[in-house]
Automatic annotation (TrEMBL):
Biased composition (Polar residues): 1-14
Segments forming domain Nitroreductase: 42-202
UniProt protein name: Malonic semialdehyde reductase
Pfam families according to UniProt: Nitroreductase
Enzyme Commission (EC) number: 1.1.1.298
Organism: Pseudokineococcus marinus
Domain of life: Bacteria
SUPFAM superfamilies reported for this sequence: FMN-dependent nitroreductase-like
Gene Ontology MF terms in the entry: 3-hydroxypropionate dehydrogenase (NADP+) activity
Keywords: Oxidoreductase
Stretch list, region Disordered: 1-31
Enzyme class, first EC level, given as a word: oxidoreductase
Amino acid sequence: MSTDTQPGRPTTDQPGVPRQGGRRPLLPLEDAGRASLFTQARTANRFTDEPVSDAELAELWELARWAPTSANTQPLRVLFVRTEEGRARLAARMAGGNRERVEGAPAVAVLAVDRRFHTRIPEVMPPMAQLQEALEADPAKREGMGGFSAAMQTGYLLLAARAVGLAAGPMAGFDAEGVDADFFTGPDEEHWHAVLVVTLGHPDESSYRPRMPRLAAEDVVRWA
């Protein structure tokens, strides 16, 4: 149980909430929380000039890292780009209008899959340490598991951004191989592969386009 109470750091122990069996009960969000995360949340295309601090980005990841993944493998890797020079380099790899969006964002997250994520299995899932060898021998299964789990983590990251008061603009139109070559140059990053670019910032009235329709429940939900 965390007792860290430093400013900007979320804790897992909130006063006034009773425990049940050693774990806190799941409490439903009020309407305002649901609106911020879901019903009123939108993909942002522009942001104000207000900067995004390192503390905000650290808080975002502190929430996002609790996403579920297959066998707790956690294959998603994140590069936060905040400098003007870094954004210019990244913008050069973006397609079409995505270039302007990156240039105008106070912060950008490059999301990547670590293609060697399975080497950490003995650390993150000790009871299934043998899975490392199985995935080493099956690249197709490894790629599928990594992509699936990273997609779940990506969804959590977008929700985490909203939870800390930031708007997000996910984009898939970019030169992924070029981003890999430009940014993932460290010895621990050689197997990282960029899959999504997410602009982050504080929204204003011009940030959003009109809401597009969602499919009705009767079109996509069935009951058994």
